[in-house]
């Protein structure tokens, strides 16, 4: 799968959450989408030619930093991790 197709699939995944997700999943999905979109946007602005694994690594570094800063409680963190695993499985 190309990076563009992966990004499109991830965006569709996030869009689909709006229809089927619980309130907690919707919060976690929005939070995760923010980190994902930030990584994609940075790569585009910097004109980086990333592979899917490199993009995912950037997102994960951002999430780890956020976790260390105490941005999420444990329940929300667990949901974000589960949704992130689902997004990565799209590749």
Written description of the protein model:
This protein has one domain. The protein has 4 helices and no strands. The longest helix is centred in the middle third of the chain and has 23 residues. The termini are close together. The protein is globular, with a radius of gyration of 13 Å. With 91 residues, it is an all-alpha fold.
What helical percentage do the residues reach? over 70%
Question: Quaternary state, please?
Answer: single chain
Number of helices: 4
Overall geometric form: globular
> SSE order, as H and E?
HHHH
Keywords: Coiled coil
InterPro entries: UPF_YfcL
Protein name: YfcL family protein
Pfam family, one: YfcL
Summarize, please.
The chain has helices spanning 3-20, 23-45, 52-68, 74-88. With 91 residues, the chain is mainly alpha-helical.
Ordered list of secondary-structure elements with their pairings:
Blueprint: H1 3-20, H2 23-45, H3 52-68, H4 74-88
Helix pairs in contact: 1-2, 2-3, 2-4
Features:
mainly alpha, globular, 91 residues, 4 helices, 80% helix, single chain
